[in-house]
Amino acid sequence: MASTSNISINSENNAVLIDQFCSVTGADKDKAMKMLEVCNWNLEMAINMHVDSCPENPQNSTSNGTDEDNIRDPIPQSRAVLMEEDMNFHYGLRRTKRKPHAVFDGLRDFQAEAQLQGQNGQNESSMSKKRRTLEDLFRPPLDIMYRGSFESARDFGQVSNKWLLVNLQNAQEFSCQILNRDVWSNKTVKSLIKENFVFWQIYLDSSDGQRYTQFYKAFKFPHISVLDPQTGEKLVEWNEVTSTSIIELITLFLREHCAPDGSRVTVDQKRRFSVIDQSEEEQLKAALAASLKDVKPSTIVIDDDSDIETFDSDSESTNDKVSIVNLNSNENSNDVIDVVGLPESLNQESSLPAKSWKDFLGSKDDQVSDLVLRLPDGKKEQVSWPCTSKLECLLLYVEEIGYALENYELVTNYPRRNICQLDKCKSLQDVDLFPREMIFVQLKNHDS
């Protein structure tokens, strides 16, 4: 009897476990009985085993166990570049657009700038008749600006043999905009820049401006600098400038520097009767005319009526007169010149040795002054002497190479000076011919 009661109790407990299993998992009773029997009627273990062995959605199993799961395929992997880097930008800076809220962007007329760029500055006369507005006052100098990248500006400077003049504009600084209004609009400044520089103006918030700022450490505004287009070296930097001061600064720079390749003076200043403006053929003709002008045919004739004595002994007097007839003078009159005869030994002693330019060179330990002589025939000759060498060294050297100072003069461009009129006892450094200078050897203007 006891065993029969235990079986009935166990069957009741098993039925309860089966119902609980079915209510939790949603499975049928046959499946529940199998799982419970496998787990020795441990409900928790049976439920866990059922969940692990049945990954399908229980909701689908209750509603429609035979329906397939509506799960989409995974998205295939793909690679793409979200933002391409600028081809000409190699310093790791992201290319940024110009800020639309810059202070002076509202003052710029981009349509007018595009028109000026297309006309290449040929309609300045018609533009000057228009009403002067803020856009006109603060407009960049498009007629002298180089429009391109920094690399192309350097390349153009090398081809044209001109220095690279950089103006970095900060839109937040009013002093930068004053440059456009007062400095770059000056006709003299424009003329100097056109002849000797490649002018490149860029804004600070552009990619080229950020790159330039990072490389050249340009943090003070206004910023103006002169770069060597061949090496990229920054030669000078200017910040506080006016239309007057920048002319002096540019003039001083051009006086101390020749062209980037050192072949010529970079400023072409027009002057009358100057060898600077003459062609090689004109210079050769002028040199030949000056040399022929100094040569006068003359003949020395001994007059038979003059008192001429011969001497057999050196002890006799030598104070004799010789008459010299100049055939270039009037035929009716003879110009008589008294010549006092001197002993040969005394005549040799009185002749002084000619000065040599080498006698006036300075010490080899001093700094060197590089001078480029532009000769009348168009050729150039370069000399490098110690800066303590006397100016007379230069004058004697020019005479030695065939240019007598009676007919030729030595001049510099900036400032305009006649070297022959300076104190020849001073050194090259004292007369501002250091560290380098271009000197023109030209014919004197005898008509002035």
Structural summary, described in words:
It contains 15 helices and nine strands. A five-stranded mixed beta sheet has the order 6-5-9-7-8. Among the domains are: 13-51; 150-256, Glutaredoxin; 359-443, Ubiquitin-like (UB roll). The relative contact order is 0.07. With 448 residues, it is of the alpha+beta class.
Structural class: alpha+beta
Largest sheet: 5 strands, mixed
Question: Strand sequence of the main sheet, in spatial order?
Answer: 6-5-9-7-8
Mean pLDDT, to the nearest integer, reads 73
Instruction: Tally the beta strands.
Output: 9
In percent terms, what proportion of residues is strand?
Answer: 5-15%
From the alpha-carbon coordinates, what is the Rg to the nearest angstrom? 49 Å
- The CATH homologous superfamily of the domain at 150-256 is named Glutaredoxin
CATH class of the domain at 150-256: Alpha Beta
Percentage of helical residues?
Answer: 25-40%
CATH topology of the domain at 150-256: Glutaredoxin
Low-confidence spans:
1-5, 57-63, 86-104, 265-274, 294-351
**So how many helices?**
15
Instruction: Identify the CATH architecture of the domain at 150-256.
Output: 3-Layer(aba) Sandwich
Shape, per Cα inertia axes: elongated
Question: Separation of termini?
Answer: 156 Å
H-E string: HHHHHHHHEHHEHEEHHHEEHEEE
